[in-house]
Amino acid sequence: MFYRPEDGHGLPHNPFNALITPRPIGWISTRDKQGCDNLAPYSFFNGVAYEPPQVMFATTSGKPDRDGMKDSASIIQETGVFCVNVVGFEMRDAMNATSAALTADEDEFLHAGLEKLDCTGINVPRVANAPAALECKMTKMVQLPGEANTVVFGEVIGVHLNDDCMTDGIFDATKYQPLARMGYRDYAKVEEVFTLKRPDD
């Protein structure tokens, strides 16, 4: 089949997200200037550069109590910093709980029963026992076409690695089984990895 998004797809559910899979989940934590903490998962997330290391995530909807933005983007716009927490399979239920539509002054860490740890270089909490966490300084925020589409770019200025996820100096995905977003309401976990050498290695 072929369809033009502007004309609709005619299917029971939009297939777009199912075509771009698996997508890593950026579990974004922030703290506003009043000291209220926020934590939310975003599956439009990825690394975008090595030197210096940089990441991005995108929000695709807004909230009335944040002037049409999501809590995460609004707080980052205000403070300029955020933390990306890596989601392992064991944290799937807590991650899902933090996707609830809470008010701006409600703390998703408390809502999901998650322990916090302070970041080292920024005034933001991180998820205790997360496989890894990336402390980030916002470099750019871009408004995309659409009602509430915002992309946040950040430079990684600090990296926390859980020692339990290391094997012989390698950050080992099989130790924590990264959670990935599929289409619809589906998820996947990484249980097995393999290596391919590049032709010029």
Low-confidence stretches: none
CATH class descriptor name: Mainly Beta
Question: How many extended strands?
Answer: 14
Q: Briefly note the structural class of the backbone.
A: mainly beta
Large-scale geometry: globular
The fourth-level CATH homologous superfamily is Electron Transport, Fmn-binding Protein, Chain A
**CATH architecture level-2 label:** Roll
Largest sheet: 7 strands, antiparallel
Distance between the termini: 40 Å
Number of helices: 5
Percent of residues in beta strands: 35-45%
Give me the CATH fold name: Pnp Oxidase, Chain A
Topology:
Elements: H1 16-19, E1 23-24, E2 26-31, E3 37-42, E4 45-49, E5 54-59, H2 71-79, E6 81-86, H3 92-97, H4 108-112, E7 116-118, E8 125-127, E9 132-143, E10 150-161, E11 166-167, E12 170-171, H5 173-176, E13 179-181, E14 187-189
Antiparallel strand pairs: 1-13, 2-3, 2-6, 4-5, 5-10, 6-9, 7-8, 9-10, 11-12, 13-14
In short:
The chain is built from 5 helices and 14 strands. With 201 residues, the protein is mainly beta. The protein is globular, with a radius of gyration of 18 Å.
What does this structure look like?
By secondary structure, the protein is mainly β. The protein has one domain (14-189): Electron Transport, Fmn-binding Protein, Chain A (Pnp Oxidase, Chain A, Roll), CATH 2.30.110. It contains five helices and 14 strands. The model has no long low-confidence stretch (mean pLDDT 94).
Can you give keywords for this protein?
mainly beta, 14% helix, single chain, Pnp Oxidase, Chain A, 201 residues, 35% strand
